[in-house]
Design a protein that fits this description.
The complex is a heterodimer. Chain A is mainly alpha-helical. Chain A has 4 helices and 2 strands; from the N terminus they run ββαααα. Chain A has one domain. Chain A has helices at 16-26, 30-37, 50-57, 81-85, and strands at 7-9, 14-15. Chain A has a two-stranded antiparallel sheet. By secondary structure, chain B is an alpha/beta fold. Chain B folds into 2 domains: 5-111 and 286-404, FAD/NAD(P)-binding domain (3-Layer(bba) Sandwich), CATH 3.50.50.60; 116-282, FAD/NAD(P)-binding domain, CATH 3.50.50.60. Chain B contains 11 helices and 22 strands. In chain B, strands 11, 12, 13, 14, 15, 16, 17 and 18 form an 8-stranded mixed beta sheet that branches. In chain B, strands 5-2-1-9-22 form a 5-stranded parallel beta sheet, with helices on one face. The longest helix of chain B has 20 residues, at 385-404. Chain B starts with a strand and ends with a helix. The chains are: A mainly alpha, B alpha/beta. The A-B interface holds A 1, 3, 5-8, 10, 16, 20, 47-49, 51-52, 55-56, 59, 63-68, 71-77, 79-80, 83, 88 and B 33, 79-82, 93, 95, 97-98, 111, 113-114, 116-118, 120-121, 176, 178-180, 182, 245-246, 267, 287, 290-292, 294-295, 299-302, 308-309, 395.
């Protein structure tokens, strides 16, 4: 089966083959793979593809057992610009 | 500032903690992003070995009513986007306001791990948990006929629930193996992971098989001769020797392409057929939902037996950060009953700290009760869960030894 057109990151439209190819070429850690392809950097904050990006990168690099491989950053849920800019008394 | 304890997550762990703290006379706020209290407990429905039915909606309602009676403030439909600490005060950011407290409990539960398969972005493809919530909580059929991809405890339990709602399940089968799906797409691995839950299977074949299959040779033999059309559980074929290679449909799910695979998970050419379905469930298991603990700066460890990265914590459910506690599936994937015990322990821990340590005895017995519940759990998501907990204990001791040096 051709796996060419499996979308892994839906927000940034990054495919399985693109991730595999990048990981192979650069022997990426999960973070480097994310930064090179933008997988996991879209609207949802990587909530769908985080583990997939991890496993592809961990084929060529060792897992760091004592550190989350892809960092979480606030806001961890989408917040509207209106709410974000609102002054809370 | 009125010092209300804040709990994030209104599932079995969060609600039990709230009840425990409120019954000691302290005020509590519970915040949850979902519109109903109960968390993942809401979807559960199964018959226990003693013949009693465990109905998650009823259990959730009991906890909710008890919490309400004790004056717990439950804020639903309220996602938390950030937490931060300054001078011992935790700030909890929601869309509506910022709450402050000295004692914060994270009971955020677990999330489902997706298995990417060609065609998985088609409308009609959902996680198996989504199908469960749609059916049991909202009473909406996800479709007329479904295929479940991923053979594990969660997917077989939910398949039975869908069946009870008169939804046809064509089969439960494997995903074609790729780098991401690897351990979910190899018949031998999947069979191994199923052996420890064989007591749940009404099929004589699997029960008998599990006795023979303690031995590696028999395992190999078992998977080699596993019937191509699967064994039936609750009349649903479980196919360990077939894998979905693609989900197909024009604008929405119309079916799946499925092929026979060898014991290593490789597709055997020329065996492809199409199974018609109007929805597909993907079941890749659960992992602890630890986003807020990560944002707060908790140290983390990856422990396979617990389902992924978990924030470092002790038996009292205290994290390494002052005033921050954890309970439920954020500490490792287990059933609702264990989560409730952990919620009680976390609640007692918080009350104990608020009351200058007068609840030590209750706390110790709650910790013991949790272990007892774990040992007697009907459903174990990982056979080595206790081993995973031991690893965590070692990490905790190491961490504290390093800090006090």
């Amino acid at each position: 089966m051709s796996e060419k057109d499996i979308i892994i990151c839906r927000c940034e439209e990054v495919t399985y083959s693109e991730l595999k190819e990048t990981a192979r070429k650069f022997q990426c850690t999960p973070r480097e793979l994310k930064l090179r392809t933008r997988a996991g950097m879209g609207y949802c904050g990587g909530r769908t593809c985080r583990n997939a990006v991890d496993s592809i990168a961990l084929e060529s690099t060792e897992r760091n057992e004592s550190q989350i491989s892809l960092k979480y950053q606030p806001p961890i849920r989408p917040v509207s610009f209106g709410k974000l800019g609102e002054v809370i008394e | 500032m009125e010092n209300k304890t804040i709990i994030i997550g209104a599932g079995p762990a969060g609600l039990t903690a709230a009840i425990t703290i409120a019954s000691r006379g302290h005020s509590v706020v519970v915040i949850d992003e979902y519109m109903k209290p109960g968390g993942r407990l809401l979807g559960q429905l199964y018959e226990e070995p003693n013949g009693n039915w465990w109905n998650g909606i009823v259990e959730s309602d009991k906890l909710h009513q008890q919490a309400k009676k004790l004056g717990v403030d439950i804020k639903l439909h309220t996602p938390v986007s950030n937490i931060e600490v300054q001078d011992g005060i935790w700030s909890v950011h929601t869309d509506v306001e910022i709450h402050e407290t000295t004692h914060l409990l994270l009971a955020t539960g677990a999330a489902e791990n997706p298995l990417p398969i060609k065609g998985w972005t088609l409308p009609g493809v959902m996680s198996v948990g989504a199908a469960q919530v749609m059916t049991n909580v909202h009473r909406v059929k996800p479709g007329e006929r479904g295929v479940i991809i991923g053979v594990n405890v969660l997917s077989s339990a939910i398949a039975m629930e869908l069946k009870m709602a008169d939804i046809d399940i064509a089969c439960i089968t494997l995903p074609v193996s790729n780098t991401v799906n690897e351990k979910f797409g190899q018949p031998l691995e999947v069979m191994n992971s199923l052996l420890h839950v064989s007591h749940m299977a009404p099929s004589a074949f699997i029960k008998m098989g599990s006795k023979l299959m303690k031995n590696d040779f028999f395992k190999q033999l078992g998977i080699t001769f596993f019937p191509k059309n699967g064994v039936k559980m609750w009349d649903i074929p479980i196919m360990l020797r077939k894998a979905v290679t693609e989900i197909i449909g024009d604008g929405q799910v119309e079916g799946v392409k499925i092929s026979t695979i060898n014991p290593a998970g490789e597709v055997i050419p020329g065996t492809e057929e199409i199974i018609g379905a109007d929805f597909v469930c993907i079941a890749g298991g659960l992992y602890p939902l630890a986003e807020l603990a990560a944002v707060a700066g908790c140290p983390f460890y990856h422990i396979e037996e617990l389902g992924g990265y978990v924030p470092l914590h002790n038996e009292r459910m205290e994290s390494t950060l002052p005033g921050l506690y954890v309970a439920g599936n954020i500490t490792g994937i287990e059933g609702a009953k264990v989560a409730m015990c952990q919620g009680q322990t976390a609640g007692l821990s918080i009350a104990n700290n608020l009351e200058n340590g007068i609840l030590e005895k209750e706390l110790v017995s709650s910790i013991q009760h949790t272990e007892h519940t774990r040992e007697n759990a009907y459903i174990q998501f990982h056979p080595e869960i206790a081993h995973g907990k031991d690893k965590l204990k070692l990490y905790w001791d190491e961490y504290n030894a390093a800090v006090t040096k």
